[in-house]
Inverse folding.
């Protein structure tokens, strides 16, 4: 085994290491919570390190870089095929960042610590797996593995209606993956029943009549997890019920699994289908943007604001995908990364920094607490995250949403304008949340009788710094990621998609 | 015909079965003659260990044997595939014996263990049968042993009630099956499946054939518990002693599904009909498709409402019988391979779940959902095992149940040109989404809810823990490397 970090094959180890880390955490003796945390942090850091190492060394090319490709189930033509291109790598980096930040923000978990980190790492491993799989069956396996840890993370360690939120999320996910499974088996059978290889299936000319029903099935199946309106309702309840690290992962990475599946599977396999359904998808995405933002504007619970804002921001990803425009598609992928980082940061502030200390998320209670004085670090972090989330220049969200809007303007100008309105509402709900949560009653003195809140701990500061750094780096120098994403979209895998694009902007 | 029989050949082919019968007799004798004075746990432990050794010996004989043989024109057939299925039946019998060694429901240790072995011998004969007469005899041999095994919890009213229901339903369906068999013989002039198939092809449109088909389906549908022949299952699973229920749910399923597939694919070849959407044609495929669809719907929906875990497993078994029937509908070698893989890994997971239920029952006195509360704290290994078994049944990767379902669905999708059977695939996938809910309800009890302060950890003995652990490991490994079994089935199929 070549352990040289410049070796791209090492990227497959992000998956294996996460699962091994989960095993390792389980083996930590009972009562040694600290050891479990350190193993988990080590595993997450190793994953991020590998991702960064490969990203620094790799010179972007449109072709798929193979990692592992061996026979798995001969009878059905299933192969254990891992590989990566620029899109995969971008999302692997995001997963690494979210994993490290998630562990740091879960440092205070004392209840069943071992199990928490074991489930957490299984989830991370499955996410890496989805992003690196180039066999449809394998991708689906990883996609489904992610469902169960989510359920337990929320049901055991969550808050507000946790069992309801967890079951809702699990069932929504499974309904989505059931739809994907139906489309996947149908595609396999129609293509001759020989292979599940994504590239080969992408080159198979599926009949248009077949694509007409298979595309919406698979696309919506994946998009349920990406928060597509009106199938988004799991997202706010799930996010609110989840413990901090799980909501960071849910919004940060899991929703991206859905969007990634839409792009990598539904759109690559059935480009004609997308052409037929383009306007419907875009319409739903824009409704999601405006609806999510408007609902966020009237929430009383701090975490629900962020939950609905995720629906709104993910709408941009789906809108970008539907544009069938080079700029829009690039923006969609960039928005996946950007929203992953920013949503993670927002949930970290709400869930860990504020709720774990004040035990309330109600704006009415928070207003009287003068958290800007009590928790200045949290206030600053939230303002930064909020500004990034609004899409101010200098942060990753700006570049991403701008590209999506440009793409949308080329494809459907009216919808682009409406989506622009969604951005304005986004500014409003973010400022409202900042105001109510941190700078509430300016005249009121900090309540004297209340206990002093515990100060922001070192792991929290490190986690916040990591996430802020990531959004700033991409915001100030977007080519960091665009150099990965652009060539990937020119790759042979997207030939079919390029063929249906009008004007040929590529 | 009879003069041509070589008894030495019979003995050679039936050596594994012979070994099991001898073991059963030795178990009976040693319990009755030598162990009278010992405590129940010693007697059960001894008898069960002896029986496990017998099963292992039979398994070794199966593995060592090679070639194929046929006695009496289909009366007792041995091929590599049949040997493989018999190994599968034995693989179910061993954990059932280990679980029964922990049981405290009977004082008749020798009889109980011997009956399990007799039931297993019946299943093995069933697998080897390619003649209607022998199918019926072997079915009855299996059923009679299982009726008694169900009634073994003598102090429990539920056990007697379950056995009576099982017996009445079983007797009725056996009569229907015999009626169907006699019609088939009348139509085709043969009881041998291969010869019968030629006659069936000629009479494909004969209404009598439809009657015969219904009779045969009733007889075997009862064994595999597909709707509408499923009514006995919930009561038997709940009332029977847990090891008996486990054997009924696993070993008996493996053998019965194999013979059902053989009867349909070989014996009734020529009267398939069609279940393709909009292109229906009367025949066994259509009849079985209706039964499969009804089983998937009813089994999964009824399971939602259960509060007894054994009843829940019974309804889940009905649902799974629907999925397996889907594999038979493919009517090709991919379908048969999918069926064998599915039914085997289903058996492993169900056996494991029953092993956990058995321990929980002993420690808490019941199998209701409440009794599983906090299992993750009280018995971590058992809880992890239960997680693996139930998620495998729900079809979550990378566990074996997922690949089983996937293969069945893929085989059904690829079987008929133009995705004819795809409506059943869609139904199956939709219903397996439903199934996750009730499996999660059990796991929620075990993992999410905390036990009260006063409840202690379980005292679980090593054998029970090891049984659960090995079964769980098998479910994980077979899920990650399905080719290991698929390759063997493919080789055996030739």
């Amino acid at each position: 085994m070549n352990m040289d970090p410049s070796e791209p094959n090492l990227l497959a180890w992000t998956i294996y290491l996460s699962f091994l880390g989960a095993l390792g955490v389980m083996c930590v003796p009972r009562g040694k919570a600290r050891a479990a945390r350190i193993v988990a942090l080590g595993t997450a850091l190793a994953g991020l390190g590998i991702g960064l190492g490969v990203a620094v060394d790799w010179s972007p090319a449109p072709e798929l870089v193979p990692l592992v490709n061996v026979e798995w189930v001969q009878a059905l033509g299933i192969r254990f095929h891992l590989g990566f291109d620029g899109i995969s790598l971008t999302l692997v980096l995001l997963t690494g960042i979210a994993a490290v930040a998630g562990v740091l923000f879960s440092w205070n978990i004392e209840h069943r610590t071992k199990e928490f980190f074991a489930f957490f790492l299984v989830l991370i491993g499955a996410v890496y797996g989805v992003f690196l799989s180039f066999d449809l069956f394998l991708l689906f396996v990883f996609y489904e593995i992610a469902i169960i840890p989510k359920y337990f993370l929320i049901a055991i360690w969550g808050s507000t209606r946790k069992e309801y939120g967890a079951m809702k999320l699990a069932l929504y996910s499974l309904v989505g993956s059931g739809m994907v499974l139906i489309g996947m088996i149908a595609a396999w059978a129609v293509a001759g029943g020989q292979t599940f290889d994504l590239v080969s299936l992408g080159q198979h000319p599926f009949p248009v009549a077949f694509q007409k029903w298979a595309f919406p099935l698979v696309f919506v199946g994946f998009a349920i997890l990406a928060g597509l309106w009106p199938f988004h309702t799991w997202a706010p309840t799930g996010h609110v019920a989840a413990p901090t690290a799980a909501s960071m992962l849910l919004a940060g990475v899991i929703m991206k699994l859905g969007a990634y599946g839409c792009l990598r599977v539904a759109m690559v396999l059935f480009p004609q289908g997308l052409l037929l359904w383009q306007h419907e998808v875009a319409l739903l995405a824009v409704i999601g943007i405006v609806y999510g933002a408007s609902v966020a504007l009237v929430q009383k619970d701090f975490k629900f604001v962020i939950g609905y804002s995720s629906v709104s921001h993910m709408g941009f990803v789906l809108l970008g995908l539907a544009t069938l425009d080079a700029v829009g598609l690039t923006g969609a992928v960039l928005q996946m990364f950007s929203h992953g980082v920013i949503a993670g940061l927002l949930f970290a502030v709400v869930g860990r920094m504020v709720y774990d200390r004040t035990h309330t998320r109600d704006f009415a209670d928070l207003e009287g607490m003068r958290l800007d004085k009590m928790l200045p670090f949290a206030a600053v972090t939230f303002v930064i995250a909020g500004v990034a989330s609004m899409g101010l220049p200098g942060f990753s969200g700006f570049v991403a949403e701008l590209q999506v809007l440009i793409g949308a303007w080329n494809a459907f100008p009216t919808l682009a304008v409406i989506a622009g309105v969604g951005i304005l509402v986004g500014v409003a709900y973010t400022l409202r949340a900042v105001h109510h949560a941190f700078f509430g009653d300016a005249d009121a003195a900090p309540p004297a009788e209340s206990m002093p809140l515990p100060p922001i701990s070192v792991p929290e500061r490190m986690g916040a710094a990591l996430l802020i750094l990531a959004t700033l780096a991409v915001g100030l120098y977007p080519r960091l990621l665009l150099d990965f994403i652009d060539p990937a979209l020119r790759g042979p895998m997207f030939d079919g998609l390029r063929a249906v694009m009008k004007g040929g902007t590529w | 015909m009879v003069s041509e029989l070589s008894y030495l050949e019979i003995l050679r082919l039936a050596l594994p079965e012979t070994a099991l019968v001898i073991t059963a007799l030795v178990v009976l004798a040693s319990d009755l003659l030598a162990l009278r004075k010992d405590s129940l746990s010693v007697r059960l432990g001894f008898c069960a260990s002896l029986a496990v050794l017998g099963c292992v010996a039979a398994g070794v004989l199966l593995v060592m044997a090679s070639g194929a043989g046929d006695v009496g024109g289909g009366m007792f057939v041995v091929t590599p595939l049949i040997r493989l299925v018999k190994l599968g039946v034995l693989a179910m019998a061993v954990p059932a014996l280990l679980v029964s060694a922990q049981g405290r429901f009977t004082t008749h240790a020798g009889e109980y263990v011997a009956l399990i072995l007799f039931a297993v011998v019946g299943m093995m004969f069933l697998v080897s049968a390619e003649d209607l007469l022998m199918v019926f005899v072997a079915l009855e041999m299996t059923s009679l042993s299982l009726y008694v095994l169900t009634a073994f919890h003598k102090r429990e009213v539920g056990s007697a009630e379950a056995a009576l229901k099982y017996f009445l339903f079983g007797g009725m369906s056996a009569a229907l099956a015999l009626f169907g068999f006699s019609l088939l013989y009348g139509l085709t002039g043969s009881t041998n499946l291969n010869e019968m198939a030629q006659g069936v092809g000629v009479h494909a449109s004969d209404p009598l054939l439809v009657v015969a088909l219904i009779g045969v389906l009733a007889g075997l549908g009862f064994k595999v518990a597909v709707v509408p022949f499923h009514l006995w299952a919930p009561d038997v699973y709940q009332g029977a002693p847990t090891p008996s229920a486990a054997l009924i749910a696993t070993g008996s399923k493996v053998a019965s599904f194999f013979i059902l597939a053989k009867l349909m694919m070989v014996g009734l070849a020529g009267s398939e009909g069609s279940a393709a959407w909009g292109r229906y044609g009367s025949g066994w495929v259509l009849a079985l498709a209706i039964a499969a669809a009804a089983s998937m719907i009813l089994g999964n929906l009824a399971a939602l409402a259960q509060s007894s875990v054994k009843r829940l497993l019974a309804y889940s078994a009905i649902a799974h019988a629907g999925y397996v029937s889907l594999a038979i509908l493919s009517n090709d070698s991919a379908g048969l391979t999918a069926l064998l893989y599915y039914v085997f890994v289903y058996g492993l997971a169900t056996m494991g779940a029953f092993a956990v239920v058995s321990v929980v029952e002993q420690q808490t006195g019941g199998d209701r959902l409440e009794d599983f509360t906090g299992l993750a704290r009280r018995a971590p290994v058992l809880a992890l095992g239960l997680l693996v078994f139930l998620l495998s049944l729900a079809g979550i990767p990378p566990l074996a149940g997922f690949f089983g379902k996937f293969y069945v669905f893929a085989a059904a999708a690829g079987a008929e040109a133009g995705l004819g059977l795809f409506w059943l695939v869609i139904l199956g996938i939709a219903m397996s989404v439903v199934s996750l809910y009730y499996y999660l309800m059990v796991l929620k009890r075990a993992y999410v809810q905390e036990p009260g302060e006063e409840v202690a950890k379980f005292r679980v003995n090593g054998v029970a823990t090891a049984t659960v652990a090995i079964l769980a490991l098998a479910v994980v490994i077979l899920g990650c490397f399905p080719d290991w079994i698929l390759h063997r089935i493919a080789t055996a199929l030739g």
Observations:
- The interface with chain A takes residues 334, 337, 376, 391, 396-398, 402-403, 406-407, 409-410, 413-414, 419, 422, 425-426, 429-430, 432-433, 436-437, 440, 444, 447-448, 482-483, 486-487, 490 of chain B (CB under 8 Å).
- Chain B has a mean pLDDT of 90.
- The first helix of chain B runs from residue 7 to 13.
